[in-house]
Design goal:
This protein is of the alpha/beta class. It is built from five helices and ten strands; from the N terminus they run βαβαβαβαββββαββ. The longest helix is centred in the C-terminal third of the chain and has 27 residues. The chain is globular. Bound molecules: flavin mononucleotide. The site of flavin mononucleotide has 13 residues, from loops.
Length: about 200
């Protein structure tokens, strides 16, 4: 079975990302089409990006980066559980994303987003643009949770019917794209380039 990682996109104490990601994890496990793992950015203790080299080179100097890269390398597909901070993604999710390059390449990603009236969709729109830079495929199918506080009862996440119904179509598309992209992902990315030309790291 292909491997799906569900990335918890907030590291904030008291985060809603925790229970929402756990729900998504349980639903994906029950669905049975992926081997599923919950991946908590907080456990990797990533400082604000402190690697010397551009991530497309994969020359990771720090143990925390190597550990994070090894984890992400294991997956075939991703779900990002994303809050919306100031109409964008959380700094924690973006930072964890920026650490790596080829580990994300040619993988499909779907989003479970939440927040106020926009349900985190503005953050998702920003992340979709960013993930394409490393040749990830962001999917339109996902789970959106507007006014998410209304879905919490005494600290427990009680998903609305719309969210329950959105999980299976999201996993179906993730699976199709996982199969379609599998050969490319196995082959790996082309030689690293930047818009300005080939990467020439400083010594
Ligand atoms: C720094 C910050 C900025 C926020 N900006 C937005 C926003 O732009 N849109 C929104 O819907 N909610 C916003 N919120 C509210 C979050 O949706 C809410 O706090 C949510 O619980 C954050 O996810 P988390 O608990 O998993 O960290 C913001 C919260 C924080 C802490």
């Amino acid at each position: 079975m292909p491997k799906l990682q569900i990335i918890v996109g907030s590291t904030r104490p008291g985060r809603l990302a925790g229970p929402i990601a756990k729900w998504a994890f349980e639903r994906a496990v029950a669905d049975g089409r992926f081997e599923v793992e919950l991946v908590d950015i907080a456990e990797y203790e990533l400082p604000v990006l402190d690697e010397r080299h551009h991530p497309v080179l994969g020359r990771y100097e720090h143990g925390h980066t190597q550990r994070w890269a090894a984890k992400i390398r294991e997956a075939d597909a991703f779900i990002f559980v994303s809050p919306e901070y100031n109409y964008g993604p959380s700094a924690a999710l973006l930072n964890a994303f920026d650490y790596l390059g080829r580990e994300w390449t040619y993988a499909p990603v779907a989003f479970v987003s939440y927040g106020g009236i926009a349900g985190g969709l503005r953050a998702v729109q920003v992340m979709k643009q960013i993930v394409t830079t490393v040749r990830m495929m962001p999917l339109p199918d996902g789970v959106v949770l507007p006014l998410v506080m209304q879905n919490f009862e005494e600290g427990d996440f009680v998903p609305p019917p719309s969210a329950q119904g959105a999980v299976a179509p999201m996993l179906t598309e993730l699976l199709r794209w996982t199969h379609a992209l599998g050969p490319l992902r196995a082959e790996g990315p082309p030689p690293p380039t930047l818009p300005s030309g080939p990467v020439a790291p400083r010594p």
